[in-house]
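Example record for the data management plan.
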Amino acid sequence: MSTTQPFFDLAQSNDVKPRHPLYTPEERARRDASVWTLVQGVLAPVQFLVFLVSLGLVLRYLTTGSGLEAANASVVIKTATLYTIMVTGCIWEKVVFGRYLFAPAFYWEDVFSMLVLALHTAYLYALATGALAPQPLMYLALLAYAAYVVNATQFVLKLRAARLDYAAQVERARAGPPGLVL
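Corresponding structural encoding:
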């Protein structure tokens, strides 16, 4: 390494290995041909909109003390959309990767999804049994929502990386074989 190159400049380092693409060509073809890809593409923004409305209702209750029933109903609806996207996502993962959960390409996203499911399910349990008073129940909802935001961010970043990987593959294919200079 030259003395003028910063030690943290990984762009020039030969030690950096390229990431494996998210999808093999076969997995990409199965993904593109599956109706479950469209289902996931529709459910994800629907779930996000339900989350935003519910978050507003939960925060309204916590700040004003009014609207508890609406806040509870919205968290139940958010949880139902979460369960729906999780079940359809498992089917999608089986179609594309051959397993319902924990495919290597989405392993950590699936692990964190289990935490998101557990927190939402704990909310439903506490609501149904009266195990928590309204205010702590809303804080549990906020905790579940914070985990959901982290998980959604994981998926968005992963899908963005897949798009970038695919664009790089297309560019390499257009450029032709390495070392060919005309």
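Summary line stored alongside the record: Residues 28 and 76 are 34 Å apart (CA to CA).
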